[in-house]
Input
Amino acid sequence: MNETSTYSLRLPRSLKEEVAKMAKRDGTSLNQLISMAVAEKVSALETEEFFKKRVKRANLALFEDLLFRPGGEAPREGDELTK
Output
């Protein structure tokens, strides 16, 4: 990350104090902890979007054919499917 921008963030005092404690415990700066938290949230939302798009391409009939094909290894104890 070479280029940065500044953003004024308003947090309730109690939340800022808790985040500052976490940053200290984690050995990072308050800014770094908040940046990582935002990055984690962005990643989670992008992952959700990826799977929403991916599920539209799913072929459930093909999946069930594969899942219930004859032959292969029988389920081990505890692996059985229940309908």
